[in-house]
């Protein structure tokens, strides 16, 4: 199923991947030498695929869609790098690998946030600066909640859900809404796709954390109800497949197609 899903947007995903790849080498070398850039198989593809599929729903094939996919991925990568940074090195001990320290990963994360902003300018998408920076703030708010409540989140489902929403779902919601806006969708349809993206992000975020209970079923149903409001087009079925793959226990089946 995932093979068919991503084969549909293979060329676009390759273009997004290339855009990102071109920004990962600087004068000091590849950024992977200074921060861990390894991500699980779903993460390099799922957010750009969401942007592309939503835009395709409205027959939008603009290069700006690919730029938006890369921008969303830059935000994800930067936030992940920052979230992995340890509290601090042990006194008197310097990590042998700079990727395991604090200073270099902070700089790489900040660099990628800078690339998110310059990519907005290059693609003439500066109008999306405010909503995207608000999402970045929400992601880091979730990170603060997470770090402050490490021992309590498994015992507090409401807090757990809130952290997943902030750290995972808001970026997917924004990706779907902005892609719909870029493609010329109505305000009502943008709201439907934002609801879909938020529920998709909850499903993905919960299952990535090993949760497969009634919450996943609830958010899957919410996402499907949002999709039901939209016209019947081939991309609608693909978005539904994206949802089902995101809620699968075997997310390793979602692989990059570049």
UniProtKB/TrEMBL annotation:
Superkingdom, taxonomy of origin: Bacteria
A biological-process GO annotation: isoprenoid biosynthetic process
Protein keywords: Magnesium, Metal-binding, Transferase
Molecular functions (GO terms): metal ion binding; prenyltransferase activity
Cofactor: Mg(2+)
Keyword Acetylation attached: no
Annotated InterPro entries: Isoprenoid_synthase_dom_sf, Polyprenyl_synt
Family named by the database record: Belongs to the FPP/GGPP synthase family.
Protein name per Swiss-Prot or TrEMBL: Polyprenyl synthetase
């Amino acid at each position: 199923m995932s093979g068919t899903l991503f084969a549909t947007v293979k060329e676009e995903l390759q273009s997004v991947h290339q855009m990102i790849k071109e920004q990962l080498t600087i004068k000091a070398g590849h950024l992977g030498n200074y921060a861990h850039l390894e991500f699980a198989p779903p993460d390099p593809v799922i957010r750009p695929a969401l942007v592309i599929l939503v835009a395709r729903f409205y027959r939008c094939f603009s290069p700006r869609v690919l730029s938006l996919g890369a921008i969303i991925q830059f935000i994800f990568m930067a936030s992940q790098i920052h979230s992995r940074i340890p509290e601090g090195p042990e006194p008197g001990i310097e990590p042998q690998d700079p990727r395991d320290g604090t200073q270099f990963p902070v700089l790489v994360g900040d660099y990628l946030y800078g690339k998110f902003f310059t990519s907005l300018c290059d693609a003439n998408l500066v109008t999306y600066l405010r909503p995207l920076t608000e999402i970045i703030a929400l992601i880091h708010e979730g990170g603060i909640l997470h770090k402050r409540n490490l021992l309590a989140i498994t015992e507090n489902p409401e807090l757990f859900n809130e952290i997943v929403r902030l750290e995972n779902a808001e970026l997917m919601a924004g990706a779907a809404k902005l892609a719909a806006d870029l493609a010329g969708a109505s305000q009502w349809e943008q709201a439907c796709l934002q609801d879909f993206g938020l529920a998709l992000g909850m499903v993905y975020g919960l299952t990535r954390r090993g949760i497969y209970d009634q919450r996943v079923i609830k958010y899957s149903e919410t996402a499907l109800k949002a999709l039901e409001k939209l016209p019947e087009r081939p991309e609608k079925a693909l978005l539904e497949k994206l949802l089902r793959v995101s809620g699968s226990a075997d997310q390793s089946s979602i692989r990059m197609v570049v």
